[in-house]
Amino acid sequence: MASPVSVYSPTPMADRFSSTSRESLKMELLADVSLLPGEERIIDKDIIYVCPFNRAVKGKVLITNYRLYFKSSEAVSPIKPCRVCDVVMALDVPLGAICRVEKMGGASSRGENSYGLEITCKDMRNLRFALKQEGHSRRDIFELLFKHAFPLSHGLPLFAYMSQEKYGENGWNIYKPMDEFRRQGLPNSKWRVTFINNNYEVCDTYPTILAVPVKSKDEDLRRVAAFRSRGRIPVLSWIHRENQAVIARCSQPLVGMSGKRNKDDERYLDMIREANNTEKLTIYDARPSVNAVANKATGGGYEGDEYQNAELVFLDIQNIHVMRESLKKLKDIVYPNVEESHWLSSLESTHWLEHVKLVLSGAIQVADKVSSGNSVVVHCSDGWDRTAQLTSLAMLMLDSHYRTLRGFQVLIEKEWISFGHKFASRIGHGDKNHADQDRSPIFVQFIDCVWQMTKQFPTAFEFNERLLLTILDHLYSCCFGTFLYNCESARDQHVRSKTVSLWSLVNSRMEIYLNPFYTPESGRVLYPVASMRHLELWVTYYIRWNPRIRQQQQSPVEQRYMELLALRDEYLKKLEELQQSSSSRLANTPNTTSSTPPQPYTELHTPL
């Protein structure tokens, strides 16, 4: 499958230009573009890419139903510190990564390259293209790009429904709720599995299979649902094998300004506490306390003193709007230019790492409490943003299974996709409304937190950074069905039967996502250091489009390891060819006795 992203694909031009005329190069320019199965060409056009790191570059742009692809028709001097000859510049942008398309300049605009298109992307970059001003030269490309970049706004299907890519493994089978419950030792004498939400009647944003205390009855669950925002009742996410402490997740109680109480809700939380005889149930409210109080005005609120044998802890994590503005500020300081002289103060002013720190710190508190034998309940407002961050990160710290390649896929499927993180609203798949206030980089922030953990514990994770980058690229690409829609009930069976799972791609090429330094440690709990001194900006993701920033290189050991893997594959391929050649020769040799002694085959030895 073609890579969904690639900004500066340098191809040496020195030799090519000496033997190939520029006219023939223009004709061949887009001939080598490899389309995905199901991908169709929409339009191609001569255009000028206004590169923010170099001069304006002439070339050709191709728009398909999946991507925007640009290739320069002239040699471009590479950005320092690269020391190679002139290169061909290429851009490969999935249309799903486009947030906004605007016309730049008008028919009377003056100035070089002032008339064209400006494209804002969701993946930390912007693109500008210039066209000739005569004859409405941009009308066709603007209309077609706008239509196919935002297909849902124009009655068209997302590319995930058009893709015909085939893989050896069906990624939709990676997560089966009952299998995951059994792995955790459920059901048991204290916890049961209920199918009360089988038709999404109790909660339309929850999965159909839930784990609840044995003492609770289905009628109790319905009464509790009436007192929890969106009907998202407290249910088990994870249980500690030894001490039986649990992580339960839910939404805020509907206390309101009048301070309503619900005896069923209070008794139900006490059932969770009693399941492992926790002395005091800790309720972690992800919000700042002032926000939780303010939510009472809209009917929400938090658990008060009426909840016996429980303690409430606020974690001070800001809401989706604050996170959206923080990432926007970060983008402003990393693209297109990074101002070196004021870098630290500029980074601090975005507050992005501060937010990452608070999310990690909250997850550490959850993990530490559960590890010490105390059950916890985690919620924010509706229980699908900050709650998912905290529960999944705490589970990653507590359970080494989720630190494996397949286990991490299960964690995302369970805590984010199955429990109703609003991917469609937060990302805006196929939607032209770029100013939608529901958009927010909550999942991006979670993956950033995971990356921070992999940096602090380089041998604890079976997967590498490439997996995290691939996940974020396809969060936007709309190439797979994995992150489409807001919840399970909206993501009906058509998604599984008519789209491909991202895990099909990942598990068909597992070797490139493996961490060569991984050392399995089943009982180890990870406690990352959540202080500003130990957190880093993820340059490989946030600043990867800037060629002036020297990319973080693989360590020499990891680089050598990858080289040896490639060498092994090469030798195995040669060995297979020799065996096939040998078999065909033997099959074609007449069955006669020859006086010439047989020639021995040379054994093929590999350095591995």
Question: How is this structure best described in words?
Answer:
With 608 residues, this protein is an alpha+beta fold. It has helices spanning 14-19, 22-28, 139-149, 177-183, 218-225, 263-274, 289-294, 320-334, 343-350, 352-371, 386-398, 405-418, 423-427, 442-456, 465-477, 493-498, 502-508, 539-542, 556-588; strands spanning 41-50, 56-64, 67-72, 90-94, 98-104, 116-121, 126-130, 191-194, 210-213, 235-239, 246-249, 281-285, 310-314, 376-379. The strands form three sheets. Strands 4-3-2-1-7-6-5 form a seven-stranded antiparallel sheet, with helices on one face. β2 (56-64) and β3 form a beta hairpin. The longest helix is centred in the C-terminal third of the chain and has 33 residues, at 556-588. The chain is globular.
Distinctive features:
single chain, 608 residues, alpha+beta, seven-stranded antiparallel β-sheet, five-stranded mixed β-sheet, 13% strand, disordered C terminus
